[in-house]
Amino acid sequence: MRPWIENLLALQQVDMRIINLRLRLKIIPREIDKLNRKIAAAEAQLTEAKNSAQKTAHEIKRTESAIAEINVRIKQLQQQSSLIKKNTEYQAMLSQIDTQKDKISDLETALLLLFDQDEEQREKFRETEKEFKAEKNNVSEEIDELTAQAEEVRTEISRLTARRPPLEAKIEADVLVQYQRLLKSGRLPLAKVNAAGICGNCHLKVTPQTMTETRKETVIHCDNCSCLLYLET
Ligand SMILES: [Zn+2]
Predict the structure, then answer these.
(1) Contact 26, 146 (CB under 8 A)
(2) Separation of 173 CA from ligand 1 center, angstroms?
(3) What tens digit of pLDDT does each residue of 98-144 get?
(4) Domain count, the chain
(5) Exposed, middle or buried, 61 (CB in 10 Å: 0-12/13-18/19+)?
(6) Which of 9, 40, 110, 211 fits a 20 to 30 Å CA distance from 120?
(7) Is the domain of 182 the same as that of 233?
(8) Same domain, 149 and 47
């Protein structure tokens, strides 16, 4: 294998690794965002569970004070009734007291349901909170790992980038220019062509003339995708 091929392959190996690492570096922040969104959604669920529990607790207090108010009203009515002389008025008063007692009975039934609801919601909140804490821990760990990984990738890119100049120095200027142009265009700069004349990059057949040149290991481009070619051995 001619030195230009060997040297270019060495440089290409480094550059491909850098390209892949840069891609990874682009993806990591997106993965972190996704994890942050996941934890925000879990936190919203927790808030919702908390709000529901608070709403019921508030409703319990409201019902209890309504019962207390009616009890006061009943006591007042009872005191008033002791002063009434007329039987019809007295009966009317007793009827009023009964109406108030019925109201209390209804409220007490509602209160029992609220107590059940309260217990359920508190339990749900505790469970949601437990799940949230576990999830938050997991996500934090994952984010820490990704952050550390990004740092490692950056270090590796710097290390590889530092290896490029001595590799470039071994390559003829005009070949290097062609290589860089191909690299910038996003194509694989140097590709294998097999004995059947199929380019390893575009998978199309090159012309017999191009094949002859690759056998001689001259600097030659694929007729289809214009990448530099070397013969597979
Ligand atoms: Zn090709």
Answers:
(1) no
(2) 23
(3) 999 999 999 999 999 999 999 999 999 999 999 999 999 999 999 99
(4) 2
(5) exposed
(6) 40
(7) yes
(8) yes
Q: What is the CATH number of the domain that holds 122?
A: 1.10.287.1490
CA of 169 to the centre of ligand 1 (A): 26
- How far is it, in rounded angstroms, from Cα 118 to Cα 169? 76
Same domain, 229 and 140: no
Write the DSSP string, 43-57.
HHHHHHHHHHHHHHH
- Residue 3 CA to ligand 1 center (angstroms) comes to 22
pLDDT in tens, 193-232: 999 999 999 999 999 999 999 999 999 999 999 999 999 8
Residue 82 has pLDDT above 90, yes or no: no
14 and 127 fall within a common domain: yes
d(CA 215, ligand 1 centre) in Å: 16
Tokens of 75: 């006591």
User: pLDDT, tens digit, for every residue of 24-68?
Assistant: 999 999 999 999 999 999 999 999 999 999 999 999 999 999 999
Ligand 1 midpoint to CA 14 (Å): 21
Question: How far is the centre of ligand 1, averaged over its atoms, from the C-alpha of 232 (Å)?
Answer: 14
200 Cα–ligand 1 center, Å? 7
Whether residues 160 and 180 share a domain: the answer is: no
Which domain, by its residues, includes 58?
A: 3-169
pTM comes to: 0.76
